[in-house]
Amino acid sequence: MTITSFHPPRRTLMGPGPSDVNPRITEALSRPTIGHLDPEFIRMMDELKTLIQYAFKTQNRLTLPISAPGSAGMEACFANLVEEGDKVIVCINGVFGGRMKENVERFGGVPVVVESEWGRAVDPVKVEEALTEHPDAAILAFVHAETSTGALSDAETLCRLAKGHDCLTIVDTVTSLGGCELNIDQWGIDAVYSGSQKCLSCVPGLSPVSFSDAAIAKINGRKSKVKSWFLDMSLIMGYWGGEGKRAYHHTAPVNQLYALHEALCILQEEGLENAWERHALHHRALTAGLAAIGLEMLVPEKERLVQLNAVVIPEGVDDAAVRSQLLNAYNLEIGAGLGAFAGKVWRIGLMGYAASKSNVLSCLSALEAALLKQGYSFKAGESIKAASAIYA
Amino acid sequence: MTITSFHPPRRTLMGPGPSDVNPRITEALSRPTIGHLDPEFIRMMDELKTLIQYAFKTQNRLTLPISAPGSAGMEACFANLVEEGDKVIVCINGVFGGRMKENVERFGGVPVVVESEWGRAVDPVKVEEALTEHPDAAILAFVHAETSTGALSDAETLCRLAKGHDCLTIVDTVTSLGGCELNIDQWGIDAVYSGSQKCLSCVPGLSPVSFSDAAIAKINGRKSKVKSWFLDMSLIMGYWGGEGKRAYHHTAPVNQLYALHEALCILQEEGLENAWERHALHHRALTAGLAAIGLEMLVPEKERLVQLNAVVIPEGVDDAAVRSQLLNAYNLEIGAGLGAFAGKVWRIGLMGYAASKSNVLSCLSALEAALLKQGYSFKAGESIKAASAIYA
Question: Contacts of residue A45 in chain B, CB cutoff 8 Å?
Answer without folding.
Answer: none
